[in-house]
Amino acid sequence: MTALDQRYVVLDLEGDGNQPPSAVEIALVEYSPDGNARRHRWLVDPEKPITGFATRIHGLTDRDVAGAPRLADIEDDLRALIDGAVIIGHNVKVDIDVLRRAIPDLCPQRVLDTLKLAKLVVPGQPSYGLHKLAQSLDLKPPEESEGRDAHSALFDALLTAELFRFLVDAAGDKVERRLNDSALDEDEHAQPRLF
């Protein structure tokens, strides 16, 4: 089995701005090398007020998440997608930490950071922030990202999927070595890697 034969799920979430943060929006995109992807998105009630700072970043307010499920209410859906999968995210440690606080025994096979992969595959970029990096590489998420803007979880997850696809292509025949690089790992709790 090769690294690319694994099940990949791209994760992004938006937080409430508190410390520690709680999720207010979660998006998971089941990655496919051909560009077809199943998308999952939830608004989440963080059970505490969203800060003004966070709202200015992602645009979500307490009113937007009023009546939304709590994270515990969607735990089974999240587990079905995350457990056993290779989770991909940009600066993903923050996102996985938010989920692990709520679901401590979440069990991805591996957590892979596209920020770290980008630094290996396309060194010397002026910025490795998701949006600036995507702009410098001329990457855009699919047009049908539900009309959401940058810093929505779904938009950012779709953009991260495009970035991952670009990085896999750019790595060429070195892709197996790059994806097996333990320096890309972000989760000390993930199951042992199978590739």
Question: Could you describe the 3D structure shown?
Answer:
- This protein is of the alpha/beta class and 195 residues long.
- Helices cover 35% and strands 15% of the residues.
- The protein is built from eight helices and five strands.
- It has helices at residues 52-58, 62-65, 75-82, 93-102, 114-121, 130-136, 153-171, 175-179; strands spanning 8-15, 23-30, 38-43, 86-89, 110-113.
- The chain has a five-stranded mixed β-sheet with strand order 3-2-1-4-5, with helices on both faces.
- Helix 5 (114-121) runs parallel beside helix 7 (153-171).
- The longest helix has 19 residues, at 153-171.
- The relative contact order is 0.20.
Q: What is the CATH class designation?
A: Alpha Beta
Count of alpha and pi helical runs: 8
Q: What is the H level of CATH, i.e. the homologous superfamily?
A: Ribonuclease H-like superfamily/Ribonuclease H
| Global outline | globular
SS strand fraction: 15-25%
Structural class: alpha/beta
Helix content: 25-40%
What is the number of domains? 1
- Main sheet characteristics: 5 strands, mixed
Overall mean pLDDT stands at 87
Number of strands: 5
Rg over CA atoms, rounded to whole Å, is 16 Å
Order of helices and strands: EEEHHHEHEHHHH
Distance between the termini: 7 Å
Second rung of CATH, namely the architecture? 2-Layer Sandwich
| Arrangement of strands in the largest sheet | 3-2-1-4-5
CATH topology term: Nucleotidyltransferase, domain 5
List segments where confidence is low: pLDDT < 50 over at least 5 consecutive residues: 190-195
